[in-house]
Design goal:
globular; Adenylosuccinate Synthetase, Chain A, domain 3; alpha/beta; Adenylosuccinate Synthetase, Chain A, domain 1; 3-stranded mixed beta sheet; 32% helix; binds inosinic acid; Adenylosuccinate Synthetase, subunit A, domain 2
Amino acid sequence: MSNSISLLGLQWGDEGKGKVVDVLSKDIDAAVRYQGGHNAGHTLIVDGKKIVFHLLPSSICHKNIKCFLGRGVVISLDALFSEIDDAFEFIGDIKERLVVSNAACLIQSYHIKIDQLRERSRSGTKIGTTGRGIGPAYEDRVGRRSIRVADLFDPKVLKIKLEEALDIYNFLIKRHDETQQEDLNELLDLNLKQAERLKPFVGNVISELKKYKEEGKVVLFEGAQGALLDYSLGTYPFVTSSNSSLGGIAPGAGVSATSIDYSLGISKAYTTRVGEGPFPTELNEEIGSYLAEKGGEVGASTGRPRRCGWLDAVLLSHSVYLNGIDGICLTKIDVLDGLETIKICSDYSSALTREEILESMALNDVEPQYVELEGWQEPTAGIQNFNDLNDQAILFIEKVEELCGAKVVMISTGPRREDIIIREYPLKR
Ligand code: IMP
């Protein structure tokens, strides 16, 4: 069936992508991250122990999968090395299984400083970034002044590029805090030292992926964040700074835009968001706290509580369209167990038309219109067969399909690997 599969979040991130990767992992040969950086967070349970990765693909835990960090990822070497060390402790040496593109751009300490200083000084316009330097690193990439992995191995070029960068960043940092300015020689030494450690991992991602394709192997493109955080298509300016939707794959990994055979979208049975930005179906009352508590809705990267609300099918169907979704995996349906009534937003009332709202993502002044469904008391938790679900849960799933125009092919019913219903398996077994 599919040799090339994309797996991405259809909401504002944290849809439970790691669990789905885990379920598919035995049938995958290679996994690629193509955008974002260590702002992502996937929590994995390996032999009963909890491990959180931010930068490495979730697939790294599976010894049969070769992992790639493509050119579209922004890499903090501190974060990468610390995750390689963690991985060593839990799953052993990953040197043979991890390839980092020599064209990927690096996150330097000045990116992190300016990200945090800028957020701190904003009043009323905070984005709520993760403070990991992601935005500034992407600004440099577009500004054609990034330090890329390959530059680490040419000390002369590296020095010139760092000098140019500090010319800008020390000026910016000084405006906020004189004491945090960076020293060129210290930074150069650090980069050169890190280059040595990185060397065995550096490779040519494009040609390696080409080989996988020619050999008919299965490659998974692992999206980070979620489609609504895409800096072009999402809720701008409350977005991340990469293309976190399907379109990010081609330039971020180095494959053709027509090469994806199957686009799998992950959505929670409700909605969450971390950081600032509009959220039409947000619940600030009792049910919001219920979802947050029952769903364990705390950010894996920053520990911030996630905002919770009902499923928004207006946004979900938009994400389904924009990302050519072939099938949805609906996660955390068990969190809805026990509710009297369950709502799904099917439309907005607003002075603007739906088309105008979606074009500009002008979600601030919309009033969600809900379809109300009867809840269920019989638990879905742990169910593995679709036919074992209660009638109300099935009606809920069918409503999601009707409102979103895509089939729900998988349903996650709990945190364990086996807590999943597979209606249509997207890979060849
Ligand atoms: P940045 O990516 O750190 O620049 O943050 C920009 C926005 O994206 C903020 O609202 C973050 O909370 C959000 N964000 C970044 N990464 C993730 C993620 O992995 N899950 C959910 N939200 C994220």
